[in-house]
Description:
This protein is mainly beta. The chain has 3 helices and 6 strands.
Amino acid sequence: MISSKTLSQQSEGPPPPLYLLAANPDSFKGKVIILGGEILGLTKKEGKTFIDFGEIPLYEDLHPILGVPAGDRFRVVSPIDLNLLYYRGKVVTVAGEFMGIAGPPELEERVPILLSMEMYVWDQVGRTRFPSYGVLLN
């Protein structure tokens, strides 16, 4: 799960919804944000891994809410190779520093971007998600 050190850096209260991050990016820049999501894709470029997620809401204990389809998109940037750990369809709880809103120049879509601090992957067995493994990145 997400470490107590990272949790202590998070703002008090529940994580802000993605639409609020997109509407007020300057007020969240540099803050630690915790989100849940389903991996939609993974790209490697210039020694970094870019992971695209569809948001899945989290309970207060940071477990993903079961049976909720992936919603709005966000992206996580990681400085390490995650090819063997992460693949499309996995559900993850992510803690990261909010970097702002960005998107590829060829697309109009702009999404919230987090610099990865920690990620926790949940295995999916049927309709139930069970903890699998965690990765501490800092």
